[in-house]
């Protein structure tokens, strides 16, 4: 079994003037007797060992499965600060809230020293790896802060020009990031291993970066950022190279009832589709708590929202929301005849755990919305805190297909043939009809159009449908908040998110077997044989008092400031240390 070969390479602690605060732990310093820039970086093995440490900068499974918590896909036991504009403050501690630079310093130590390597072929290969990780680092920074200082060499304590450097422009940073990825594509090999960086990893990530930035510039018109179309062209061309040259395909067993679910619940990465992933192992004691987080009543009661569930099409390819009674449909009815991915993402009627044939209903004590998450849930033996060990995908081939289709649609050059070799493949795996370009554009979905109000033009319908497909296929993989930011759709974070609809208090048969499964009450629970008894009226309420949608935190004012909240603030402690840093617009101490 191939597992990440994670070797922490220690570095000298950085004095964080205008940058990250110091972390003076043993693991952040070179063991002088073992390794230093002067006595290492000489062989291919040296470069491999050093760059292996960069893999720890990739997201862990907790980062991925909780990445949607700031978005409109999720309601859980809190309202994130990203949705509470009036309460958001500028963090004071230097190096906090993502303004940290230790990972970049380690990468740039490599660039300062890798040419010492006598094996020039290996030097080029690992240069490609390092450029990939520098691009990953800076893309995260740009998404969060916009323009930031660009560094491509190790900063010494007496480098005052660098220590007190102002922010470089967003355009400059993105140009350098894309340049790093394009060079990485040329340097890296074509061997496909999902826990190692390859040419295909760099191309897939390049498509993500360019799609993000191209659409950000297209929809954030007030910023007057150039070259949106050029970036979108780079996005689809990078994706197209993966599609035409790499040999990746969508994982399938020929049974669309299990393919999608298995992709996320399996212990092992599905190498046909996973371009980059992180491995976990019971044997190596590399574990996580994903099952426990989603299933335990003591965790954050995570549930998917009614708006998200409504997004799934009917099995015949028509919108669920085209039905006249969709808004007040009971759970057992709204689960019927839907895109099969819905029943592989939440506990639907007839849901069973892996290796079990016992039907389970959603547990409303562990899910505020009633739409309890099933995606990523593995075997029952992994339900304990820290007992899960299923691997996790970081970049999937399905994302590449979605990037390709969206970039071409946004450019206005998409054809039915483009859809057939991208969206159709995703739909086929799900057992769904293909997306039709002409039909979508002649009759755009009214619900989607009312949400994404800035989508216009002759390709409006197909852009809306690609966004639907993206939201469904990539749910709970950490994309949705970033997508809303690049589309300038922060306003979708303002409503109080809701869950299941109930026409009254009382008993409910969730699965239609004639037995009461759930009791909702607001004062004292009446006699009931229902296994679940949920009190409403406190944090959890119904939108219309004694009926309506499950909703939480109505006492909290939700707001997204369109003039400010698309970027995070730089910590005030870092601006105090480096007076040349300017705060992001409209953030005031």
Average pLDDT number: 93
DSSP helical segment count: 21
The profile of the biggest β sheet is: 3 strands, antiparallel
Shape: globular
Account of the protein in words:
Helices cover 35% and strands 6% of the residues. The protein is mainly alpha-helical. The strands form four sheets. Strands 5-10-9 form a three-stranded antiparallel beta sheet, with no helix packed on it. A three-stranded mixed beta sheet has the order 6-7-8, with no helix packed on it. Helix 3 (102-113) packs antiparallel against helix 4 (120-145) and helix 7 runs parallel beside helix 14.
Key words describing this protein structure:
disordered N terminus, 21 helices, mainly alpha, three-stranded antiparallel beta sheet, 10 strands, 589 residues
Strand and helix map with partners:
Layout: H1 44-52, H2 61-65, E1 74-75, H3 102-113, H4 120-145, H5 160-163, H6 170-187, H7 199-219, H8 228-245, H9 259-265, E2 274-278, H10 290-295, E3 303-304, H11 306-311, H12 331-334, H13 340-343, E4 392-396, H14 397-411, H15 416-420, H16 423-429, H17 437-442, H18 446-451, H19 460-473, H20 480-486, E5 498-502, E6 506-508, E7 518-521, E8 532-535, E9 540-542, E10 548-552, H21 572-577
Parallel strand pairs: 7-8
Antiparallel strand pairs: 1-3, 2-4, 5-10, 6-7, 9-10
Helix pairs in contact: 1-4, 3-4, 4-6, 6-7, 7-8, 7-14, 7-20, 8-14, 14-19
